[in-house]
Amino acid sequence: MRLPMNTSLATLKPSGIRRINALAAQYPGCIALALGEPDFSTPDMISAEVTASLDRGDTHYPPNNGRPALREALSAYMGDAGLTFSADEVILTDGATEALSATFMAMLNPGDEVIIPTPAFGLYESIVVANHAKAVFLDTEPAQFQIDEEALRACVTPATKAIVICSPNNPTGCILDAASLDAVAHVAEQAGIYVVCDDVYNRLVYVDGYERFAQRHPELREQTVVIESFSKPWAMTGWRLGWLAAATPVIAEIAKAHQYLVSSAVSFEMDAAARALTVDPTPMLKVYRARRKRVLAALNAMGLDAVEPAGAFYAFPSIKQFGLTSEAFCIKAIKEAKAEPGQWIVIYGAGGLGNLAVQYAKKVFNAHVIAVDINNDKLELAKEVGADFVINGREVEDVPGLIKEKTNGGAHSAVVTAVSKVAFNQAVDSVRAGGRVIAVGLPSEMMDLSIVKTVLDGIQVIGSLVGTRKRLGRSLPIWCRRLGSPCRSKNVQ
User: Fold this and answer.
1) What is the pLDDT of residues 263-305, one digit of tens each?
2) 168 neighbors 310 (Cβ within 8 angstroms)
């Protein structure tokens, strides 16, 4: 007989991030793009502190909340940002994830509700639900990803215990303005609820005038929990170091949960963490800023609208115009093509969805990619995002012949997103014996197909149904990073 498990946890789906990473791991040489991870190395002066700590034999249990010297450094660091928390009101954690877990574990009772403005990092919902509480979603899209006070009030019930805010936001990159912060403060004060501030991106800001909730509303420090991380500003994701701060009565309860979740952060990383606080992340920020410009220009060239991120390192484009889920399109199209590392794939139609297919084929499936289009701007963009070779169909008389020359006999697969009879016919002629043609585009005219060639060469022609509107929110979660910035969508898990 199967014994019962946590019924709340049973309602959660496995993490989408982990699912995509597992898929990527099936393809040798694949670059996993699902995690929001800086591609920089941790600065050498930080890493050097670990070597020194190990040389001293610093491998024993440290204090559960972190060494006093580091907590003093964290208190001073936050003070420089206008946040007043003593060293005793700071806990060093195993990353921001553990900080969130300890906070909600200490805060929530069964049946409590937590308001989560969306789009949001899916971990919030997971932790809330795992603690037998309920996630209540506040859609911020009608307010241009800001928080409307009236809409927020409508989410409050007698069971509401907290609201969690993230600014700069994951995944939109938007920063909550003064009106939004004030709206949260007004509702929190009147309803008597906690404000959990996920401030892990507070050092990655591209605009002037950025304010943090705890900085703007110190009068609510008894109701505020601030969570930060070493991961993003200093490219220390694998170190698993974060911290949280709260007023004494609140931090005392969170400390209990922390004690039972972990023994401590890693002892020989603590001096390195203190050193990190003295390192200016501005050089990385300059690179992110340049990438942001490039990403937005690329998305615009693809016909994809995107909100301009004011912080973090994400882009959040909309593909509503297509009525499709880009993830479903790319995964299904490339999987049906049975792409394998080192194989040749031809993408006919390099704009919009075709561009996404280029990126997915290259970055996830590690295939060799040829992009075909009649627009040089789209071809240039396809080259930027990874195409090994591009062909302008108007400038090349024999497209299939050139493809066969470049691929030593023909492509293994062709994906047709172009709504063109010519493109479809060229796709059939450009694959080698045993190849596959995936038809995604829908030309209005009848298409010809050589039955003799198809049969004798064993070519498979497949029509692909690529997805539904239901999952539109999961737009471009893993392709954008190689353009210069990762992106995620509503409730990414």
Assistant:
1) 999 999 999 999 999 999 999 999 999 988 888 887 776 667 8
2) yes
Assign a CATH topology to domain 41-276. Aspartate Aminotransferase; domain 2 (3.40.640)
For residues 165 and 174, what is the distance between their CA atoms, to the nearest angstrom?
12
CB–CB of 152/138 below 8 Å? yes
Q: Say which residues have a Cβ less than 8 Å from residue 364's Cβ, sequence separation at least 6.
A: 23, 24, 27, 30, 31, 33, 330, 334, 478
> Residue 264 forms beta bridges with which residues?
none
- Is the peptide bond prior to 283 cis by the omega test (within 30 degrees of 0)? no
b (16+ CB within 10 A) / e for 396-415: eeebbebbbebbeebbbbbb
Number of H helices, E strands in the chain: 18, 15
**Quick one: tokens of 366?**
């590690």
Could you tell me the residue ranges of all domains in the chain?
A: 41-276, 321-471
Q: Which fold has domain 321-471?
A: Rossmann fold (3.40.50)
Least confident of 161-175, 236-250, 313-327: 313-327
Distances (CA, A) of 217 to 72, 165, 388: 23, 14, 52
CA 127, 133, 134, 135 torsion-angle sign: negative
